[in-house]
Design a protein that fits this description.
The chain is of the alpha+beta class. It has one domain. The chain has 7 helices and 8 strands. Strands 6-7-4-3-2-1-5-8 form an 8-stranded antiparallel beta sheet. Helix 5 packs antiparallel against helix 6.
């Protein structure tokens, strides 16, 4: 009963957020920048078109300049880079040893890239100023070495890149809170503090975005999905 009451309070709290004036929504006549909010498993993150990143912002992305898209997420240093076990999960929630930034670089169809792994993808249109603020938010998540370069870390997933990150991971400050803060930095009407669960992030995002997955799975053929 107590848990049901807590969940009910979380649902009600997420319904009160307002957009940041001047950032969201996109003004009439302005060309929007489309990002995608992704849920896969317990994690959420954002997908950004590489060509949209403004010059001078998030310079670390140039390491992946040949990729059309970059998925970005934040998480516990051990739980994000290696298969999750009960021990790793408990350490992450209550005694994390550090945090990491995930970069998954790819080109082509978003829906094809995440077929079989994504539980949801939502397209969100941002203003140019809001998009720039999101890029700065990602940039500020990196933990850099004395020369100002990102610090790569090994992992069990060769198709993904991980870098040492800023921020203390815990049960009440996890990857979903990070994703919600990224959207809030862009001006979106979302409450990061209450975004502990992936479902909460996606439920809030559906109110101001457009679901492209799993709707895109309704037909026999998966095609390129682009909100531009």
């Amino acid at each position: 009963m107590r848990m049901a009451l807590i969940l009910a309070c979380l649902v009600m709290a997420t319904g009160c957020a307002s957009p940041v004036r001047g950032l969201f929504p996109v003004h009439s006549g302005e060309s929007p920048r489309t990002i995608y909010v992704l849920r896969r498993g317990l994690h959420t993150g954002v997908i950004i078109r590489t060509a949209d990143i403004p010059t001078g912002l998030w310079p670390q992305h140039q390491q992946f300049q040949n990729a059309e898209y970059l998925e970005v997420g934040w998480g516990d240093s051990q739980g994000y880079r290696y298969p999750l076990t009960c021990g790793i999960a408990l350490r992450a929630m209550f005694y994390s040893k550090g945090s990491v930034l995930l970069i998954h670089a790819f080109s082509g169809s978003i829906t094809n890239e995440y077929a079989g792994t994504a539980k949801g993808v939502i397209a969100v249109q941002l203003s140019s100023h809001g998009f720039a603020r999101l890029c700065v938010y990602v940039q500020n998540t990196y933990s850099l070495d004395p020369s100002g370069r990102p610090i790569p870390l090994p992992s069990a997933y060769p198709e993904e890149s991980f870098f040492m990150a800023r921020g203390r991971y815990s049960a009440i400050n996890n990857c979903n809170n990070w994703t919600a803060r990224a959207l809030r930095a862009a001006g979106c009407p979302i409450r990061p503090r209450w975004s502990l669960f992936p479902g909460t992030v996606m439920r809030q995002t559906r109110r101001f975005g457009r679901v492209i997955w799993p709707k895109a799975r309704s037909g026999p053929q998966i095609s390129q999905v682009d909100a531009d």
